[in-house]
Design a protein that fits this description.
This protein has 5 helices and 7 strands, in the order βαααβββαβαββ. The protein is α+β, with helices and mostly antiparallel strands. 27% of the residues are buried.
Length: 165
């Protein structure tokens, strides 16, 4: 497998990152949550303005995931002391099931270690069986469950997974 590269998104690229997020989220969630909820979530949480606020105000870092010179996905993380929050990890459809997600998780673990974290945690929709399998295969363990009201009558029903470094 060709090596993947995490390249931190520049401010001038936030609009392109938001467009990529919208495309990848619709691919991942329309069948699970419906197009209307997916559209609301991308507008609310992954728009250019939302990305800017997360990066500038909340310490998030966003990376384009590249392979062979092409952008194939993106990742968002937030260092939190001894914990490292994996907020987003999305790959294009043609890159799923090829070991690229596992390589991306290895890169996230490396970033977390560099920050001095002792664990990486994430939330994943309970109905997203493919992602749950990928996280468990890597070594993440289910730690808790959470139901979060995200507005407009929508809720996220998630598992919280943790990987000990």
């Amino acid at each position: 497998m060709e090596e993947i590269i995490f390249r931190e998104a520049k401010e001038s690229e936030y609009a392109r990152l938001a467009a990529m997020a919208k495309e990848l989220w619709h691919s991942a969630y329309d069948g699970l949550l419906g197009a209307a909820q997916t559209e609301y979530m991308t507008d609310e949480f992954q728009s250019e303005a939302a990305l800017r606020e997360q990066i500038d105000g909340k310490g998030y870092r966003y990376y384009f995931i590249e392979r062979g010179g092409a952008e194939i996905g993106y990742c968002g993380v937030q260092p939190q002391g001894d914990k490292f929050f994996l907020s987003k990890l999305y790959l294009s459809d043609d890159c799923r099931g090829r070991g690229i997600g596992q390589a991306a998780l290895s890169e996230v673990a490396r970033l977390a270690r560099e920050e001095g974290a002792r664990s990486v945690y994430l939330t994943v929709n309970k109905g997203n069986a493919r992602a749950v399998r990928a996280y468990e295969k890597f070594g993440f363990r289910r730690a808790a469950e959470a139901v979060t009201d995200i507005g407009r009558g929508y809720c996220m029903d998630d598992y919280i997974y943790e990987f000990i470094l």
